[in-house]
Specification:
It comes from Geotalea uraniireducens (strain Rf4). The protein has 554 residues and is mainly β. Among the domains are: 213 residues, no CATH class; 96 residues, Carboxypeptidase-like, regulatory domain (Immunoglobulin-like), CATH 2.60.40.1120. Helices cover 5% and strands 45% of the residues. It has three helices and 40 strands. Strands 17, 18, 21, 22, 25, 26, 28, 29, 30 and 31 form a ten-stranded mixed β-sheet that branches. A hairpin with a 5-residue loop joins strand 19 and strand 20.
Length: 554
């Protein structure tokens, strides 16, 4: 059974929160006779992605709201504005990570004074990559406000590439669960961290189908209460000629990926070291999944994380769960690609394996079943992977966690058979699709276009005009529809002059039917971009229009 789709999780989350907020009162307004304030600190956590040396973002504003579905045009936001002095942060700076001697987080706001309340949404506003270079980005000698420095796996050459933030002016929405809001009490101080899962949400794109790659962010960040967090550390005992960038270590809880990263150093034993922090301390256990190119997959399940004092010190680091070392082995793999609509979709690959460690070398003998689910975002410009995805064709190695040893793992079945499901925001999930190593090298288009998860859809289209300095002979263009920073779909656009874009079909008449539009056009020598928005929350018409103005860009 596959996990719930993103749309199902989103709908259930916001409806539950709204019911909790509105039940018995019918209003989100504050009582002006009892207004008091408290302080909240907001950090952003260390994050890494395979093949990426640095991932830079430039932060302009941070907003908070008590309503999980408030949009930027609504009242009630409390704001911290960095626009006059933006913050440019390298999320993958080794000195920020625990293994590099850092705290695992970078500070956005130390003491933001807000009204005492339970907050259910943060909006993080990044500078548009297309905007003139911010002073803070220039001070770091960057080419773009948001930038990825990636490493060629063959030559080790580092290349700086733009990291596109679709509809940056709409912000990235981060919503808290109904049972765990951001609690700010009168006269108190609370600290939270925003966690970007870059290994999943940083997507390589080949927009022009030329092999000239860029990156785009499809963010599904978490906000974590730093008062009750812990961590997992460990190392990978590998073989010759293996780089840490070949591996991703994922932490999964109840089928959902919580945090992931890449090994970030070599320990005293010569093994690839990793640390995953911060992780919420909960009554539920975690699984750790370790994957790498040309290696077998390893699964360590039933891990309980212990609370660690913040900031992390050499002493408190001892309370991290220790997975040291995990004995990685050579494996086989096969390449595969897909073509999916809407292009904002992600694909989840799951396999359930029976396992047994009953043998002569058995330590802590056990048998059972375990599931491994991998989720990957598609290139939103074409609904494919920019480069083929490689899946392991060997059985995973499985172990129930204990502090005793990591020498022996159970022997599982399942030689590369997966069930694939496509998910997209505001769409119903696809039916399961079975793939095996027999599909190696194929581009599969047998996943039908996903249906809107709503009774009412509105056709959104409009005109595109050229602002001052925009190139007048653009030969290609797209428009992306977004919601809270997440990409829904893309359509073709005519940008040769006073053009137009093809219609989107988007849900209307819902509490969350507010969308950003991000247009991108180019020719052989110039590029242009523009943004817009459209509010369909109260719409009852079958069509609507939104105009976008294009401006020159980097």
């Amino acid at each position: 059974m596959m996990k719930k789709s993103f749309s199902q999780l989103w709908n259930g989350l916001v409806i539950t929160i709204l019911a909790a907020l509105l039940g018995g009162c019918g209003s989100l307004a504050w009582d002006s006779t009892t207004l008091t304030t408290g302080d909240v600190g907001i950090d952003v956590s260390y994050a890494t992605a395979p093949g990426c040396k640095n991932v830079w973002i430039t932060v302009k504003q941070l907003w908070v709201h008590t309503n999980p579905v408030a949009e930027i045009t609504d009242s009630g936001w409390q704001k911290l504005d960095f626009s006059a002095k933006p913050l440019t942060i390298n999320l993958s700076d080794p000195a920020l990570g625990i293994d590099g001697g850092g705290t695992g987080v970078a500070q956005l706001a130390d003491r933001l004074t807000v009204l005492a309340a339970d907050y259910y949404q943060i909006r993080l506003f990044l500078a548009a990559t297309e905007d003139p270079l911010a002073s803070s980005a220039a001070a770091k000698s960057l080419k773009y406000n948001n930038q990825v420095d990636d490493i060629d796996p063959g030559t080790s050459v580092v290349t700086s590439r733009p990291l596109r933030i679709p509809a940056a002016s709409q912000g990235i929405s981060i919503v808290r669960d109904a049972k765990s809001p951001i609690v700010v009490q009168a006269g108190s101080y609370a600290r939270y961290a925003i966690n970007f899962n870059l290994a999943r949400d940083l997507v390589k794109t080949d927009r022009e189908n030329t092999g000239i790659y860029e990156y785009i962010l499809k963010p599904q960040p978490l906000i974590i209460n730093m008062a009750n967090v812990g961590g997992i550390k460990g190392s990978l005992k590998t073989f010759a000629n293996m780089s840490g960038f070949n591996f991703v270590v994922k932490v999964v809880q109840a089928g959902n990926e919580v945090l992931s990263g890449t090994p970030n150093g070599i320990n005293a034993d010569g093994n690839l070291a990793f640390s995953l922090y911060p992780l919420p301390v909960t009554k539920d256990t975690y699984d750790v999944v370790i994957q790498g190119r040309k290696t077998d997959t390893f699964l360590i399940h039933n891990i309980t994380v212990k609370a660690t004092n913040f900031p992390v010190t050499a002493e408190s680091l001892k309370s991290f769960v220790n997975l040291d070392p995990v004995p990685i082995v050579n494996g086989s793999e096969y390449p595969i690609n897909f073509s999916v609509k809407p292009t904002g979709a992600s694909l989840s690959f799951s396999r359930t394996s029976s396992f047994s460690s009953l043998g002569a070398s058995c330590v802590e003998c056990h048998t059972g079943q375990a599931s491994v689910t991998e989720t990957y975002h598609l290139d939103p410009f074409n609904g494919k992977f920019a480069t083929p995805l490689y899946l392991s064709s060997n059985p995973p190695h499985i172990k129930t966690f204990s502090e005793k040893d990591f020498k022996y793992f159970a022997h599982a079945d399942n030689n590369g058979a997966y069930k694939v499901v496509a998910n997209a925001l505001f769409h119903k999930p696809s039916a399961d699709m079975d793939i095996t190593a027999a599909n190696a090298g194929q581009t599969l288009n047998s996943i039908s276009p996903l249906a809107l998860d709503t009774a009412q859809g509105v056709a959104v289209q409009g005109t595109i005009s050229l602002g001052a300095g925009a190139p007048t002979a653009m030969t290609k263009g797209y428009v992306l529809a977004t919601h809270g920073g997440m990409i829904i779909d893309r359509v073709e656009a005519d940008m040769s002059g006073a053009g137009s874009y093809s219609p989107f079909t988007l849900p209307a008449g819902r509490f969350d039917s507010y969308y950003g539009l991000y247009a991108f056009g180019w020719n052989v020598s110039s590029k242009a971009a523009g943004t817009g928005s459209i509010d369909l929350r109260k719409s009852t018409t079958p069509s609507s229009e939104a105009e976008i103005t294009m401006l020159p860009m980097n």
